[in-house]
Design brief:
single chain, 181 residues, alpha+beta, 25% helix, 30% strand, RNA-binding, metal ion binding, cytoplasm, hydrolase
Length: 181
């Protein structure tokens, strides 16, 4: 069952990319277990919770709203992991944040309305699951492993006014061996 979004206004940046926001939701600050949700389009496949930004909405607020709607969790919003582009078919630009979960709702909007499920995965397992259906979502976790871990001191969020900060495209990681991607 697909999600019906009445009166949704899609927002785009100056280059025509749809503006999206998402969170890697972790069980703890160790960032070793991540929460994935079932896809509304393909319920047997897992994705990172996220969606379109509303007009006048800040990326961090949009990310928190999306995980509340899709995963039924609240938490402490952490650093901006990066801004990821998906050029080929969809032309999305997604702000991806780290969120440490502090509250888990028993029933939430998408579980009631469309039967969405959620499940905790070890980061390595989540990467494998996401590579099949949503490789760009797997890239979020691969970037996390490459150096944005909570222990390396890289916990500052860059200014979002700086339009050239932290863009990652599939082309930047596709040539690397999977062991270091």
């Amino acid at each position: 069952m697909m999600k019906f979004k009445p009166n949704q206004t899609r927002t785009y940046d100056r280059e025509g990319f749809k503006k999206r926001a998402a969170c890697l939701c972790f069980r703890s600050e160790l960032e070793d277990e991540v929460l994935l949700v079932s896809s509304s389009r393909y319920p047997d496949q897992w994705i990172v919770p996220g969606g379109g930004m509303e007009p006048e909405e800040e990326p961090g607020g949009a990310a928190e709203r999306e995980v509340y709607e899709e995963a039924g969790v609240k938490g402490k919003l952490g650093r901006l992991l990066g801004i990821f582009e998906q050029n080929q078919d969809r032309k999305h630009r997604t702000y991806v944040y780290v969120l440490t979960v502090t509250e888990i709702l028993e029933d939430w909007e998408d579980s009631v309305n469309i039967g969405r499920k959620r499940e905790w995965f070890k980061v390595e397992d989540a990467i494998k699951v996401l590579q099949c259906h949503k490789p760009v979502h797997a890239e979020y976790l691969e970037k996390l492993k490459l150096g944005c871990s909570p222990t390396n001191g890289n916990s500052t969020v860059p200014s979002l006014a700086d339009n050239n900060a932290l863009f990652v495209t599939a082309a930047q990681t596709s040539g690397l061996p999977s062991s270091i991607r």
